[in-house]
Amino acid sequence: MNANAIALGVNRGWITWRSTNSSREGLFNLFFYNAIPLVFLIVSRDSTLPGTDIALGAKLLPGMLALMVVFSVMGTAYYLSTEREDGTLLRAKAVPRGMSAYVVGLAFVAVMDVLVSLAIVLVPGMFIVPGVPVGDLGMWIGLIGYVVLGLIACLPLGVLIGSAIQSPRVIGGFGFLITMGLAMVSGLFFPMQDLWGWVQVLVQALPLYWLGLGMRSVFLPDAAAAYELTESWRTLETLGVLGAWAALGLIAGPILLRRTARRESGAAMEARRAQAMQRT
Fold first, then answer.
1. Which of 18, 51, 253, 259 could form a disulfide with 156 if both were Cys (CB 3.0 to 4.6 A apart)?
2. Three-state secondary structure along 72-139?
3. pTM of the model
């Protein structure tokens, strides 16, 4: 991948992100859905974890930030499915270095989604939630590191979902429900200790649990680790699992996208367009 392909991909990603979020509907969705976490933080402002003086909002905030990273997965899946349907992927396949630029564009859109969501929630959240270590350089380094690892680890899942599911509407509906369901059982908002043992084992195989654990470790004091599954932050395990998923993502992501592009044809695109017209 050369500099020209990267520049084309960044430009394409910026155009895609801007066109999606500059419309009235896009702006409403951007601010409305990111305002919901702020409401929960305000409501829980004066609550604390049982037996401690740690603010409940301080535990919820990192879970919300982790969830925003994971929602970028669904955004990637939605964009990919939509662009398979409208022929964008087919056109990228036909242009020299088009697929390289397309990959960069998808990644850029995901990064922009996460950065804007983090800014909308994190900046007010630091003032709403007491006890957030704003002046701690280690917190910022940890936050940036886990966001980057989480994005690299989760983006290939978005490519896989967008490749497997042809309808953007299905991704928008069921994808949201599945993501929220995983968030509920991954300890982002509720203790995992209350779940069945087999659910705990299954969830720990996925990156969402570890991303949430890592986020909590940089936001919360050491005493809060007592509320975790093993009563510790398991930093080495967190970095290891997320690093393994990230390595898998760097290898599998481009392969999945190339295989998806190879299956694209004019006839397949027209068939999907006809199905979309029937739905409308």
1. 253
2. HHHHHHHHHHHHHHCCHHHHHHHCCCHHHHHHHHHHHHHHHHHHHHHHHHHHHHHHHCCCCCCCCHHH
3. 0.86
